[in-house]
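As a representative case, the lines below give one protein's residues and fold tokens.
***
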Amino acid sequence: MRFGNDTVPKGISTLQVDRELERRATVERSNARPPSPGEVAGIVLAAGEGRKFGGPKALAMLAGQTLVARALRTLADGGCRPVVVVLGAAASEVRRECALADAVVVNETWAEGMGGSLRVGLAAAADVGAGAALVTLVDQPFVTPALVGRLTAAWRDGARAAVAAYQGRGRTPVLLDRSLWDEVVEHAVGDRGARALLRARPELVTLVDCDDVGAPDDIDTPADLRRLARGFSA
């Protein structure tokens, strides 16, 4: 997840008034029953075209499973409910791998960057009344259910923005309390995500040590996939 200091375009400010965002997103399927305020929605951002990879990374195979199916299973096994996946490029192909998702949402403006997908995902989580949202990227296969559970435990202990940390550095996933979503939406523009807000307001951040339950490695190229596949167990 890359971050910055862009501001939201005129007319798009908060989850409550972002009608333009709703028009640009298409809900393909929703099996989600409303969670309680004490539950955490899981959001997989999987809308990118994978320019460096040569195609959507969501469809890349690792240990006999696509990356998007693996990410959805990780969030579900980690206790997230509902699990939302945001699609964009090649949505018709990727959605076939999304059987574990409670809600499939298509960001029609995916080419504008990750920020729009984050806004769409948070809007879907807001619609079902989740108390927080854990946001992960489809190309990080070493995120584990135990890591998801650790971030959720930090939130239950009072963290408003629980950020997975590896060797002391905050990376992804990020778990965001519902009280922050409006501010996150205001900052999530172009290829910017939640960290634009979190860098501006470091007092919100709780770094959660995850070195023993995951790794930040991501997949940008086929060479990355081959490297990570060596020694990877399903």
